[in-house]
């Protein structure tokens, strides 16, 4: 085992953060304690999962700089020295040419976060759109999207002249490769063939099998050949359209040639890119032609739309030895599309598309296990495992499909004897995902946590399984190397005497504002990062409205603040898509019948897994307990925080989390919390009050935007033309920006160019629309998520024009690595984090925000992984170092004038010549998602501050304030 270190987290007076001088791979890590876990009774199959004794327990701590490490004398130090040559070197490769390369970057970041340790060293590699390979730093992996660094790869990364040179480098630098490229080149056999030719071990399925499974049309033919029920489909190829053949296909499948509903999707893209619904032959060919002309794929599949079916997805894990395949399907997840309000009801073409999959809105909900009959769940698991084996897949995969009740699906008689038919209905497997998404709350981690695997444990299990196929890596598959990172639930730590020195942290997220889904993402990210410290017990907590989330919930209704409830959550219930889903799973978990069914299914999967894993010397057991959520009234939850001396990490965006209410309640009980105090929170939540507080700083280089407040009722009841003329006259502008008065910065923000735009916006408020579709207004824009319910007060202000910034990855010209900006009006939009103590706030490096879909940053560009471009630090071609320094001074002046402390985020415009700042708004509980610019900015500090250290520093600032 590795040697024991104690952290010396020292902070000097000259710098806010002490971080690592080098990359995360070069840091040291603590040995930790392995938690006790509850496991099913395996006596029937003579299987035992040991509860590790206290001598072999592991907890784990932050990776820290060698200079700040105090070595504690221990007999295991010698062991560490002996095992230095046993460090497994893993090369994580992300990016790729597909539209999913941004998601690939997020997956890679998640993988690195959870596998890096003393016994496993990670190197990072990136493939760009043109299949050029680069060795990149870990810091680049924390970028929001490849476009953040694509244009400067030549100066930041080690490039390779060819893929063969890249393969030679991998052969000499890593022991095994973990490809995390989604779509083309990652799942079609491309990267696998490159590695095979160079004899480089890798995780996942071989190239030939990848090719056969990746092409949806070929895979469908193979599924039919292997005896599975399949969806009737027709192939359209780029060489030409055979309309007469498609007409025959429509007739054969009893579809109306003018209105028959079908799904049109690329045959060789990811599971959601380019997927659309079509009606009739002509519409099908038009949409197929669109996919081909856009360059997504030249092979397009037309499939019968499975009306009345329920979509599901299942992760399959191979727990065999060597080349012996022993696939086990985990608990499948049902994908439920949800419709709220008249806009969604009209969305007849609703499918589980890219936006629904990756953006946290109420358009979709997941159910694990599915709400299907038990025999159907068992058949899905059996079929997915059988498919995995027959297609020759390796290590892990995700299998998607549909369940159609018996009355909903009719197929040719030839399907009657095929796998998928049951008394309850028909199961159809439709998509094979060879490299499943691995973002923090992806299906892989949702399903794995349900059966006892933490993020670290499932990823290391996959890697260790892959190593078994390569004799040269056999020495790395020992139990001491494979111990997963431990987790400490409240029930577990109470029973452990060693836990007396552990400090409790309650991470609270959720709430009832329109930003509650982003809050869930922030809280989850903070929770996962803070788990890396051996001296912390981090407990995720959901803040819920008094009566739960309902369609008629009104955020402006005056609730008694103490009528709200807080749920203390077990591991698996946090990894959800929305706050509504988290709450629903909490209620499900304590409902006796559903809880009993879930427990039974969980135990069955764990027994199946242990049939293979019990034979592996490296497997140390499951590390997630099957515990129940606990519900508290808010007042009792705060008193509990006081009793256990917990620090509260506030990740509730908007509402009581950001307006000073929660801060006031915590202060009354003496409970330390993160972020600014009551007065500063209250001031910044009110955008008008923020401007008034900063109004006297104009001579010091800080400008404010004039604002007008209007009520929703005024917009709905007064003539729109009169309202428009009054606003533009008072604000002295021709174009308006509208936003909710007391909400966050990500919903309901739009540019209005004319009275017609204001009419569209007012009608959306009246109809309680959840979103404005793309280009609903006169100026081009992406989808605008609207607050739900609509806000009672709205702020109007002049729209500030800035010059368009174009990054090279969006350009198709040969000059591939350039940043284009004309700089006519000399103002650019920035967002910048501030952190520190009151009166001494420190400005991080600002980020220049680049809008891709319109004049206002969309919800996707702010918070959805793989979208949005943030240039951190601002390129000197846009703003000089001198102007940037003055900008940071102005940002610090703003922070100190407002009385900020802990951390916040300031959005503004900056004059690139003199560093003057035009303030937009201040967010005292900023987004803390894996894609947040705060992480990019912390990494730009000298020395860089990695996410675990960053969130720990924010936590420590709260503790230091409470001790003053």
From TrEMBL:
Any GO BP: cell wall organization
GO MF, any single term: D-alanine-D-alanine ligase activity
UniProt cross-references to Gene3D superfamilies, sorted A to Z: 3.40.50.20, ATP-grasp fold, A domain, ATP-grasp fold, B domain
Record has Ligase as a keyword: yes
UniProt family annotation: Belongs to the D-alanine--D-alanine ligase family.
PANTHER family (alphabetical): D-ALANINE--D-ALANINE LIGASE, D-ALANINE-D-ALANINE LIGASE FAMILY
Entry protein name: D-alanine--D-alanine ligase
